[in-house]
C-alpha cells in the first residue's frame, strides 16, 4: 500500500471565524505541494494539521502509511562548528549505516541541493541560502514519510531564494509526501502542485 494523506472537508478555527473550510484532497508521494495564502491565512496551522499535531475543528485527516514526520523550520538551525556533511550524514548513521556509507549518501544529497562544494565547511560558514538548502537535504536524509517545510525562503533575498527554489524538486527524491508553505510566488512555481488557501476561505 502506498502512502497518502486524505483531507476530507477540513476546516479550522481558533475561535474567531474560520481560517479555511471545506478543504478536500489527497496528498501523495513524489509530489511537492505548495501551500499558499497570505500571512495569517493558516498555512502553518494546516501544516500542523497534516502532521497530526493539531486536530482540525472540522472534517478529518487520514494518514495512510506515512511513517514519521519531519518539519523544516523557517530559520535554519545547525551546529555552528560542525561540518555541513555531518548534519546530513547523522540520520544515516542513526539508522545503522557505517560512517563511510553514511558519508557517501550524505554527499549524494548535498550534490542534489547544490552543496557539494560546501561539504567540509562548518555550519556557521554557510550563507543563509546554503544553510536552508542544508536543512532541506537533512530533511530528505531523515527519510520521514511526510516532509513539511514552512516558508523556506521567507528570510532570504531574491537571489538566494532562487537558489533554494531551484532545488525544491529534490525534496521528493526519497519518496516522501512534501508540503511547502510559502507566500513566495517563485517557490509556488517550483512546486508540482498548488493548494491555495484563498480557495477555501
Ligand atoms: N495556537 C494558536 N492559538 C490561537 N490562534 C492561533 C494559533 N496558531 C495560529 N493562530 C492564529 O491563526 C491565524 C493563522 O496562523 P498561521 O497558521 O500561523 O498562518 P500563516 O502560517 O499562513 O501565516 C493567525 O491569525 C494566528 O494568529
Ligand atoms: Mg506560517
From TrEMBL:
Q: Identify which top EC class this enzyme belongs to.
A: hydrolase
Keyword Transport tagged: yes
The record's PROSITE patterns line, in alphabetical order, gives: ABC_TRANSPORTER_1, ABC_TRANSPORTER_2
Q: Give the Pfam families listed for this entry.
A: ABC_tran
Is the ATP-binding keyword given for this protein?
Answer: yes
Q: Keywords of this protein's UniProt record, alphabetized?
A: ATP-binding, Hydrolase, Nucleotide-binding, Transport
Q: Where is the ABC transporter domain?
A: 5-198
For this protein, the Enzyme Commission number is: 3.6.3.31
Q: Which InterPro entries match?
A: AAA+_ATPase (IPR003593), ABC_transporter-like_ATP-bd (IPR003439), ABC_transporter-like_CS (IPR017871), ABC_transporter_ATP-bind (IPR050166), P-loop_NTPase (IPR027417)
Put simply, this protein is called: ABC transporter
Which organism does this record belong to? Bifidobacterium cuniculi
Amino acid at each position: 500500500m502506498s502512502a497518502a494523506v486524505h483531507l476530507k472537508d477540513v476546516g479550522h478555527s481558533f475561535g474567531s471565524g474560520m481560517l479555511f473550510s471545506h478543504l478536500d484532497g489527497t496528498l501523495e508521494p513524489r509530489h511537492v505541494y505548495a501551500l499558499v495564502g497570505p500571512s495569517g491565512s493558516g498555512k502553518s496551522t494546516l501544516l500542523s494539521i497534516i502532521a497530526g499535531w493539531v486536530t482540525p475543528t472540522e472534517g478529518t485527516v487520514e494518514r495512510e502509511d506515512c511513517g514519521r514526520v519531519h518539519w523544516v523550520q523557517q530559520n535554519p538551525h545547525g551546529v555552528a562548528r560542525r561540518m555541513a556533511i555531518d548534519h546530513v550524514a547523522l540520520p544515516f548513521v542513526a539508522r545503522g549505516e557505517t560512517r563511510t556509507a553514511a558519508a557517501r549518501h550524505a554527499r549524494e544529497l548535498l550534490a542534489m541541493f547544490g552543496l557539494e562544494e560546501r561539504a567540509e565547511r562548518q555550519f556557521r560558514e554557510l550563507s543563509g541560502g546554503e544553510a536552508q538548502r542544508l536543512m532541506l537535504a537533512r530533511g530528505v536524509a531523515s527519510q520521514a514519510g511526510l516532509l513539511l517545510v514552512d516558508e523556506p525562503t521567507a528570510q532570504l533575498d531574491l537571489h538566494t531564494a532562487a537558489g533554494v527554489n531551484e532545488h525544491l524538486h529534490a525534496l521528493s527524491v526519497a519518496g516522501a509526501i512534501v508540503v511547502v508553505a510559502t507566500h513566495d510566488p517563485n517557490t509556488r512555481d517550483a512546486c508540482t502542485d498548488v493548494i491555495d488557501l484563498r480557495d477555501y476561505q
